[in-house]
Automatic annotation (TrEMBL):
Alphabetically ordered keywords of this record: Carbohydrate metabolism, Cytoplasm, Isomerase, Rhamnose metabolism
Biological process terms in GO annotation: rhamnose catabolic process
Gene Ontology cellular component annotations, sorted alphabetically: cytoplasm
EC primary class: isomerase
Entry EC no(s): 5.1.3.32
Xref: NCBIfam families: YiiL_rotase
A Pfam family reported for this protein in Swiss-Prot or TrEMBL: rhaM
Name by which UniProt lists this protein: L-rhamnose mutarotase
Source species of the chain: Bacteroides faecium
GO molecular function, one term: L-rhamnose mutarotase activity
Amino acid sequence: MKREAFKMYLKPGCEAEYEKRHAAIWPELKALLSKNGVSDYSIYWDKETNILFAFQKTEGDAGSQDLGNTEIVQKWWDYMADIMEVNPDNSPVSIPLPEVFHMD
């Protein structure tokens, strides 16, 4: 199992909408993530910077940000594009963060 962290950017004033959409995450998206080895997935919000910090555990080589070739992930990206900073394909701007310390 591999641990991965990355950051994304939430547009100002979109905090409540972001939480609302994730509280009702699509079951088929959740199933796809699980099927592809993504687990223990959390996203945290830094209120001072509007940076979203994400952490997940993955089995295999792909994490949640590597599933953009699937229809359901592309639809989710389109759904979230109005409240996040995104790339031209509507994928969230996502910056991997290297692990510098871990304690079990």
